[in-house]
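Re: GDX structure - here you go.
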Amino acid sequence: MTVVAFPFKSEEASVVAANLLTATHNRAVDEVWAVAAQEGDAMARVAAVASEISAAEAKPVLVFSQERIGSYRAGKGDGMNTAIGRAAEAGVDRLHFYDADITNFGASWIDGAERAADRGFGVVRHRFPRPATDAMITWMVTRPGLAMLFRGSLLPRLGQPLGGEILLTSPAIEAIASDPSVRARSDWGIDTILTHAMTTQGLDMYEHLVPDGKRHALYGSLDELRTMMTECLDAVASLGGKQGPSPDSRFHSDPAAPVPNDLKSIDAYDVSATVGLLGESWSQAEVDLAKSLPGQVAPQILENLSGPNFEFMDEEMWGLTLGHLLANFRLGDATWESLAFRLWVTRVLAYTTSAADLGYDAAMEYLESTIRQYQTVGDHHVQP
Ligand code: GDX
Ligand code: MN
């Protein structure tokens, strides 16, 4: 049995409905699941369209709320783990996941993953171009973190280590459903932990390219990503010292394709609204913590007490900063969370106003080069 699952919280009902329909209509798909963050209006609205689609397409479309499974904040991770647990119990052969807010979801996503699974790949990940200023957690936290922790492996090479668009076949479903570190990760950290887990089981991995890009809800000020940023930072830091990818698994990634022009000119977040975050609500405890940052990072970040200062956070300064964060950051500690988020904001603004200004292609080349650079620093910056 093949299942397509969508975790959803409060997305536009028409977008979710279109995605449920696309999945249900696909001949490879036997059942569609929508996993709600909680019971309530959003769930009731999706349940209403789901029953219409189910009747029209003569296929089960199940809407249910997530269980409390993990030990972090109850979030997307509980949603995904609820589906993974159900799939393992029901003996599902293939479980696809897609974010519910994708506005250009189509049959080719499902078909591309299915084709790779038919060729024997045990896990499939979708990869897609994103605007130069989108994916800032991926580019500034997760990929550099994976580069420092697992250099030379396939982990830093994955295009979308945080992407919620994946296919697990039954051996992966079973292994992941009983993996305590995946089960525990109930928050935004789930994607990082799943990505790592998918590479350590000796299964062949296929990275399927969606050339049109992933179109989805974008952001206002980066403040909207505060929780996601700190949880994703904690998740990658938690992989320190863990076993890396199994060296003899096959890894195939589709070759690059031309990127749509309109995507190249999308601004993914509001820069001027974000600059205001730099000087906002510093506590004395955060000032003191900032003083322990390495090298020039400490005096430079503290300049923000008197006015915005972010240009200093180039790739080298960020390597130093991220290494320090990987070793010392504490999720749940308000001072650490505020400082880590502020440091990331300086990095994103510095990049946005320098490399990203050179245009999409130059920006991507620059970002890829930073990942290569972080692989060579490796242990240098990450003290155990
Ligand atoms: N069941 C459930 N429970 N679903 C949730 C919850 C929750 O608590 N929170 C969010 N979702 C759903 C949401 O409705 C959407 O379908 C999906 O999860 C992703 O959330 P979204 O707000 O669209 O996240 P965003 O900003 O698009 O981030 C995605 O890409 C990031 C990245 O690639 O950088 C998301 O897959 C992140 O996990 C990922 O880090
Ligand atoms: Mn989204």
